[in-house]
């Protein structure tokens, strides 16, 4: 393989460049990134950057040592895979031939209808623009009490803004955790002085705030939309690549055409919907951990090794002074066990099927997360009585 192109200059694209060189790829390497700035990390945007504790979050990659041409501020606009292997990437900088391609174009925020200005939080520029609005007394209305909404509310409340979070579901984090667990975080909003309104249907974003279904208006100096993201895959239209919401990838992260895997095209990060052998289903994780680690497997695949990505999905969030960590997948679990008092300052919830751990949610209990990870990775059985006792480490039955 002589020429590899990486499309997307986020964490996944950067890690792909590092992994390719670490595995001995000696050919030409080019990264095409739509953003003009060097690749940076996104989690700090809703934390340290929004809080004003940091201005940048650039990744520490040594691009010269990686011998990677950075085509920044340029966008891939189309893909023409050649029959068999290789092909041409169409970009705003012209056509680029490739033998190997890494698709790492991430995701973009979903927007609400309406003519008014809505802020999102995806890029460095988004974070700095929003930060400028977080002044004492400013009325900040955040739509969506998901991970991003909660973190923005945390930063805005700390800055002395008057914050309202408008959530369509019956509780925060409904989609990720379900209503009853999500409801446990509602008191955090109140304690921070943030008004949480649930069951809110937004009709449109207007110049002066939100128009709700039913006619009510919510006045705002700034509206922040945090209702989720969708994979950035529109540029692949017409390429023949299999795309369903994200780029469909097999356990080795190979993309496919008509169901036939392409060993020369891999997809990683927020844009990839890969098949997880562990879960027997497709996973579209949109989590930092996958963007960090999956490129290792994608690079190995591209270079002809037999590699499989089957990490346990992991996510964390820092909100209202709490560290919230989630590992695994609980949707099919048989039962749920609480460790510690959910009304107390720190607690965990463990999902089990039989005596195996499917998932864990840890609130300010990082050790539970570490212990659960060990058990889950090895498929070790646990004693439910021990799992329910917060004073005993999570361990084998
Ligand atoms: P991205 O970071 O989105 O990078 C994709 C890049 O590709 C972008 O630079 C984009 O401009 C570029 N691109 C798109 N289309 C094209 C094109 N056609 N041509 C060229 N380039 C293109 N996860 C956690 O687990 N915990 C957290 O606390 C957490 N906090 C977060 C906070 C914020 C504000 C955000 C936005 C995300 C957070 N995440 C968190 C999620 C995590 O950051 C993402 O999962 C991760 O950044 C995904 O990396 P990526 O490289 O796949 O995609």
Question: What is the correct CATH architecture of the largest domain?
Answer: 3-Layer(bba) Sandwich
Lateral strand order in the biggest sheet: 3-2-1-7-21-20
Q: What oligomerization state is this entry in?
A: single chain
User: What Rg is obtained from the alpha carbons, in whole angstroms?
Assistant: 22 Å
Ligand identities: flavin-adenine dinucleotide
**Net shape:** globular
Helix and strand topology:
Blueprint: E1 3-7, H1 11-22, E2 28-33, H2 48-51, E3 68-72, E4 76-81, E5 87-91, E6 94-98, E7 100-103, E8 107-109, E9 118-119, H3 124-133, E10 139-143, H4 147-158, E11 162-166, H5 174-177, H6 179-183, H7 186-191, E12 195-197, E13 202-206, E14 209-212, E15 217-219, E16 222-225, E17 229-231, E18 243-244, E19 246-249, E20 254-257, E21 260-267, E22 272-276, E23 281-283, H8 288-302, E24 314-319, E25 322-328, E26 335-339, E27 347-353, E28 356-363, H9 366-378, H10 384-387
Parallel strand pairs: 1-2, 1-7, 2-3, 7-21, 9-16, 10-11, 10-16, 11-12, 19-22
Antiparallel strand pairs: 4-5, 5-6, 8-17, 13-14, 14-15, 18-19, 20-21, 22-23, 24-25, 25-28, 26-27, 27-28
The protein binds flavin-adenine dinucleotide.
Protein name: Rhodocoxin reductase
Keywords: FAD, Flavoprotein, Oxidoreductase
GO molecular function: oxidoreductase activity, acting on NAD(P)H
Write a brief structural summary.
The chain is of the alpha/beta class.
3D architecture notes:
GO terms for molecular function: oxidoreductase activity, acting on NAD(P)H. The model has no long low-confidence stretch (mean pLDDT about 95). Strands 3-2-1-7-21-20 form a six-stranded mixed beta sheet, with helices on one face. A five-stranded parallel beta sheet has the order 9-16-10-11-12. It folds into three domains: about 5-110 and about 230-300, FAD/NAD(P)-binding domain; about 110-225, FAD/NAD(P)-binding domain (3-Layer(bba) Sandwich); about 320-385, FAD/NAD-linked reductase, C-terminal dimerisation domain (Enolase-like, domain 1). With about 400 residues, the protein is α/β, with parallel strands linked by helices. Helix 1 (about 10-20) runs parallel beside helix 8 (about 290-300). It starts with a strand and ends in a 10-residue tail after the last helix. It has ten helices and 28 strands. The chain has helices at about 10-20, 50, 125-135, 145-160, 175, 180-185, 185-190, 290-300, 365-380, 385; strands at about 5, 30-35, 70, 75-80, 85-90, 95-100, 100-105, 105-110, 120, 140-145, 160-165, 195, 200-205, 210, 215-220, 220-225, 230, 245, 245-250, 255, 260-265, 270-275, 280-285, 315-320, 320-330, 335-340, 345-355, 355-365. Flavin-adenine dinucleotide binds next to helix 1, strand 2, helix 8 and strand 24.
